[in-house]
């Protein structure tokens, strides 16, 4: 066996034998998505150090829709803080004047990132893992802030499907981002083969994974709402385009 191969095997063996200091997240975030309404100056997020013995540093930052770290028009304060063992704290997201340069007739997408930094171990050969949480942040200008009527009649119900050959195209006529998490041929059914979750930008269209034949004439799409819930939309495709005919919310 060549020396190079021996060294590679040895390195892999040593890394596997090294104890892992922390395998689950210590710093927890209180939500799975952030909605920032344009009539607010800031939004506060709650974080908690769930490790009962060790303090952790919590590092936070914002990325644009391409995943690039940015310093405006939305910022996080403080960017780094110490959270004692078992303690709770807050991270504030706030806007800068440049927020006015964003489109005011539709949502803009950002990402909020939260990384935990464990304390340095006093034990030798300990592999420490810094876990990171990344959630979508939607900036919603005043002109499109959800009103009570919008919550009672969700904009996601305005989605339509258009058949092109053996595929459906999902059309989003709204000023909001809409995430489709599942696509099946019946309520509470499994996603059809070939479907991949997708996020529709405002006033856009995308092809739906999976064949139109497998989805049938009454496709069911599951979307993620502002609160992380997953209502299901049943479409009637007797005509073209297909329109929503039934909505099933969580627990119904």
Automatic annotation (TrEMBL):
PROSITE patterns noted in UniProt: PILI_CHAPERONE, PROKAR_LIPOPROTEIN
Keyword line: Chaperone, Fimbrium biogenesis, Immunoglobulin domain, Periplasm, Signal
Signal peptide feature range: 1-25
Localisation: Periplasm
Residue ranges annotated for the Pili assembly chaperone N-terminal domain, each copy included: 27-144
Family: Belongs to the periplasmic pilus chaperone family.
Name of the protein this chain belongs to: P pilus assembly chaperone PapD
Upper taxonomic lineage: Bacteria, Pseudomonadati, Pseudomonadota, Gammaproteobacteria, Enterobacterales
């Amino acid at each position: 066996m060549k020396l190079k191969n021996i060294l590679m095997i040895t390195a892999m063996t040593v890394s596997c034998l090294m104890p892992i200091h922390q395998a689950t997240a210590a710093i927890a975030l209180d939500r799975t998505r952030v909605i920032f309404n344009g009539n607010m100056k800031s939004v506060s997020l709650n974080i908690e150090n769930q490790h009962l013995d060790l303090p952790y540093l919590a590092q936070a930052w914002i990325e644009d829709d391409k995943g690039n770290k940015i310093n405006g028009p939305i910022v996080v304060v403080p960017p780094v803080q110490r959270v004692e063992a078992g303690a709770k704290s807050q991270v504030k997201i706030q806007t800068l004047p440049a927020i006015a340069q964003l489109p005011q007739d539709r949502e803009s997408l950002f990402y909020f990132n939260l990384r935990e930094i464990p304390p340095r171990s006093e034990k030798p050969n300990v592999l420490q893992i810094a876990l990171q949480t990344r959630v979508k942040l939607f900036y919603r200008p005043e002109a499109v802030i959800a009103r009570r009527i919008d919550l009672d009649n969700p904009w996601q119900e305005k989605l339509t499907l258009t058949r092109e050959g053996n595929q459906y195209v999902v059309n989003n006529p709204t000023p909001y981002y809409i995430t489709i998490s599942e696509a099946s041929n019946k309520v509470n059914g499994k996603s059809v083969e070939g479907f991949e979750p997708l996020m529709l930008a405002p006033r856009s269209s995308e092809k739906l994974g999976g064949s139109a034949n497998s989805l049938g004439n009454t496709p069911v799409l599951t979307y993620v709402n502002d609160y992380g819930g997953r209502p299901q939309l049943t479409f009637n495709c007797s005509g073209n385009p297909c329109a929503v005919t039934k909505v099933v919310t969580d627990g119904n």
